[in-house]
């Protein structure tokens, strides 16, 4: 059964950085594309960054140049390095397959505020 556990969120000042981690299980991690998404209260879930099994990456314009997605197949982990954070980045962040499966983790809250 697919499972995603996101960690690493928190409160950070504008301009700061955070690194999110995603532990995945229940599927053949090595062959699937992974992605990070975020959702604000009352908002739609937004695709931020994706990484293929071959480490090709793609980013939404809103995070391009600031966020970096990576993966470690040996650990079944995906990561999102977030730099130069802005208040608009405040959201709950999720990882999932790309395209996403129906199973979502609990997410991790990121709050960017002074």
Summarize the structure.
By secondary structure, this protein is mostly beta strands. The chain has strands spanning 3-7, 10-12, 18-25, 34-39, 46-51, 57-59, 67-72, 77-82, 91-97, 108-112. Strands 2-10-9-4-5-6 form a 6-stranded mixed beta sheet, with no helix packed on it. A 4-stranded antiparallel beta sheet has the order 1-3-8-7, with no helix packed on it.
Please report the distance between the alpha carbons of the first and last residues: 40 Å
What is the string of SSEs from the N terminus onward? EEEEEEEEEE
> How can the largest sheet be summarized?
6 strands, mixed
Helix/strand/pairing class, anyone?
A: mainly beta
Quaternary state reads single chain
Strand content is: over 45%
Total number of helices: 0
Shape: globular
Strand order of the largest sheet: 2-10-9-4-5-6
Alpha carbon gyration radius: 13 Å
Overall pLDDT metric: 97
Portion in helices: under 10%
Poorly predicted segments: none
For the secondary structure, the number of strands is 10
């Amino acid at each position: 059964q697919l499972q995603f556990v996101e960690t690493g969120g928190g409160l950070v000042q504008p301009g700061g950085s955070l690194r999110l981690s995603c532990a995945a299980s229940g599927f053949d991690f090595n062959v699937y594309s992974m992605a990070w998404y975020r959702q604000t209260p009352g908002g739609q879930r937004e695709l931020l960054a994706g990484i293929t099994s071959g480490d090709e990456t793609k980013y939404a314009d809103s995070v391009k140049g600031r966020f970096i997605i990576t993966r470690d197949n040996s650990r079944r982990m995906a990561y999102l390095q977030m730099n130069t954070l802005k208040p608009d980045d405040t959201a709950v962040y999720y990882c999932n397959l790309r395209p996403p499966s129906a199973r979502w983790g609990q997410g991790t809250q990121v709050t960017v505020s002074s």
